[in-house]
């Protein structure tokens, strides 16, 4: 069985856009979620209920404020294993 011309990898679906498209991203390495409203406002949440309340309350609280990238906690220093 042969796959598509791109080596068997299916094409990605088109990216949605519009007045009611919300995006929720898991912040890698944390338990936090980044909400992106269709207006471009972004905010990071610990609680998914608060996240949805904020998204659905548009435009209330949707100020165009840049969200800083969360910095992951530094990895603990490790000593090399003895030879």
Overview of the molecule:
Strands 1-2-3 form a three-stranded antiparallel sheet, with helices on one face. It is built from one helix and three strands; from the N terminus they run βββα. It has 83 residues and is α+β, with helices and mostly antiparallel strands. The chain has one helix at residues 48-56, and strands at 23-26, 33-36, 42-45. It starts with 22 loop residues before the first strand and ends in a 27-residue tail after the last helix. The protein has a domain at 23-56.
Core attributes:
1 helix, 83 residues, flat, 3 strands, alpha+beta, three-stranded antiparallel beta sheet, 14% strand
Strand and helix layout:
Blueprint: E1 23-26, E2 33-36, E3 42-45, H1 48-56
Region (Disordered): 61-83
Biased composition (Pro residues): 67-83
Write a short abstract of this structure.
This protein is of the alpha+beta class and about 80 residues long. It is built from 1 helix and 3 strands; from the N terminus they run E-E-E-H.
Major sheet strand order: 1-2-3
Distance between the amino and carboxyl termini: 50 Å
Count every helix, treating DSSP H or I runs of 4 or more residues as helices.
1
Radius of gyration computed on alpha carbons? 20 Å
**Structural class, judged by helices and strands?**
alpha+beta
According to DSSP, the number of beta strands is 3
Oligomer: single chain
In what range is the share of β-strand residues? 5-15%
Low-confidence stretches: none
Outline type: flat
Mean pLDDT: 78
Order of helices and strands: EEEH
Sketch the major β-sheet: 3 strands, antiparallel
Q: What is the helix content?
A: 10-25%
Region (Disordered): 61-83
Biased composition (Pro residues): 67-83
């Amino acid at each position: 069985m042969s796959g598509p011309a791109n080596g068997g990898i299916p094409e990605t679906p088109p990216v949605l856009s519009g007045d009611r498209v919300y995006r929720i991203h898991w912040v890698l390495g944390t338990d936090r979620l980044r909400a992106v409203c269709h207006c471009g406002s972004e905010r990071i949440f610990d609680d998914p209920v608060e996240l949805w309340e904020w998204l659905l309350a548009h435009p209330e609280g949707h100020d165009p404020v840049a969200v800083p990238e969360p910095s992951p906690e530094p990895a603990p220093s490790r000593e090399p294993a003895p030879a």
